[in-house]
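Format notes (please read before filing issues)

Several people have asked whether sequences and structure tokens are stored in separate files. They are not. Every record keeps both together, in the order shown below: the sequence lines, then the token lines. Line labels are part of the format and must not be stripped during preprocessing.
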Amino acid sequence: MSAPQPLHFRYAYDGRGEAAFVDYVLHEYSQLHAVERVRSRHRWPNVLLASLLFIALGIFLERVAVHESIVMGVIIGVALWIPYCFYVFRAAGESSNIKALKQRREAANEKPAQAVELTLDEAGVRLAYDAGETLQRWKVFTEVIVLDTHIIIAYADYFGGVSIPRGVFESDQHLQQSLDTMRAWLLHFGVDDTSRIREFLATRHVRCSCGQDLHGLTTATCPECGTTWRYNALSMHAYVQDPKAPQSTINPRGTM
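Then the structure lines:
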């Protein structure tokens, strides 16, 4: 397959693109946490079963104590059950990732404006600015996100990317053509969503919002409910379910 056409942009970067992207990611986190809170309702059968076991334990302990009082046994069982409920439905604290994102948003809003030249070609994504030049290979990217004010070529770890103000595009047609070309570059290097998802799920057990285990899935669509996942959203979904599980091995830093 032949390579897509190179793209070149010149614009002023002042940190607003990074701040907008961080807000987008934080919103996605909040949405996924809301899904997990809904899923927590499915814990009720286990909680009810546990309550019966605790009451039975309370009655047993009361009888062992020779008081022979079923009411007192129930009270003891409920007293043991209440802390268990607090543990099961405890609210998760703010993760280190969320804190890091909020700190990045604050820092982004304080960045001074500077002239930037961005080139997208076979070599990768090249940024030239006053302080020097950087070149990042396509393998560290996975998705093009369209925001109200910026276009973000997002890293595969969802904690950064390259931001382009929408004002640099001459028309909606120019914007759409550029988006198609950016996504074509990702596909050209095999780092598009479907390829990333197939690699990610080959070694991980992740539940879809419907509860289906997506381990081993070779497409981006859940076979149970039909939800089509984006790689970054799925990776974030896996993190919300289990923050201790290994995530992306790609860890570029910062947004430009």
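For reference, the curators noted about this record: The chain has two domains: 7-36+95-255, 39-88. The mean pLDDT is 78.
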